[in-house]
Amino acid sequence: VSVIVLSGTGDHFCSGIDIKTLKSITNDSGDRGRSGERLRRDIKSLQDAITAIERCRKPVIAAIKGACIGGGIDIVTACDIRYCSEDVFFSVKEVDLGITADLGTLQRLPGIVGFGNAMELALTGRRFSGQEAKEFG
Q1: 75-111 in b/e burial notation, b at 16+ Cβ within 10 A?
Q2: Is residue 133 classed as helix, strand or coil in its secondary structure?
Q3: CA trace torsion 42, 46, 47, 48 (10° rounding)
Q4: Would you call 102 a catalytic residue per the annotation?
Q5: Phi/psi of residue 67, each to 5°?
Q6: Pairing state of beta strands 67-69 and 89-91?
Q7: Catalytic residue among 8, 17, 70, 73
Q8: How many CB atoms lie within 10 A of CB 13?
Q9: Residue 127 CB neighbours (<10 A)
Q10: How far apart are CA 83 and CA 44, in angstroms?
Q11: Domain 4-136: which topology?
C-alpha cells in the first residue's frame, strides 16, 4: 500500500455521527455515572480512530463529495490531502445539536483554515462550499 484514499459510498462523504447511537449510549442505564463513563470511553475510542488516520505512515487522501458534516469534518481534517467535488458542502453541525466537536475538528481545523475561520464555522454551524473551503486554505 502506497497511499490510502477515503471516500463515501452513495451521494455523500459523511452525514455525521449517528444520533440514534449517540442517544442509546447516554440512555442505556439508569445509573448516570456508568452511562457517563460509557460515553467517555466511546468518544475516546472514536477520537483514537480518527487520530489513527492522522498518524498513518502512508499518505491519506480524502475524496469528498456531497455532504461532509460533523464527524466527516473530523475525518477529513485528519487526512493529509483533501479533494472535493463541485457539489460538496461542509458543516460543523455539532453546535446545532448542543454537543462539542471533540473528535478532532476543534483541534485540527484551525491549523487548516485559521483560528478565526474555524471558530466562526464551529460556532455558527453554517454550511460552506468546497470553493469556500479552498479559499480558507
Answers
A1: bbbbbeebebeeebbbbbbbbeeeeebebbbbbbbbe
A2: helix
A3: 100
A4: yes
A5: -85, 140
A6: parallel
A7: 17
A8: 25
A9: 14
A10: 28
A11: 2-enoyl-CoA Hydratase; Chain A, domain 1 (3.90.226)
C-alpha cell belonging to residue 122: 464551529
Name the pTM for this structure: 0.86
Q: What residues does each domain of the chain span? A: 4-136
Return the C-alpha cell found at 24: 442509546
Pairing mode of beta strands 128-129, 89-91:
antiparallel
Whether 71 is a known active-site residue: answer yes
**Using CA atoms, how far apart are residues 59 and 4, in angstroms rounded to an integer?**
6
pLDDT digit of tens for each residue in the chain (137 aa)?
A: 999 999 999 999 999 877 777 666 666 666 777 777 887 888 899 899 999 999 999 999 999 999 999 999 999 999 999 999 999 999 998 887 777 777 888 999 999 999 999 999 999 999 999 999 999 87
Query: 53 an active-site residue?
Result: no
Looking up cell 446545532 gives 96
Q: Which residue among 74, 75, 104, 130 is the active-site one?
A: 74
What sections of 1-137 are H helices per DSSP?
Answer: 19-26, 32-55, 71-78, 94-97, 105-113, 115-124, 130-136
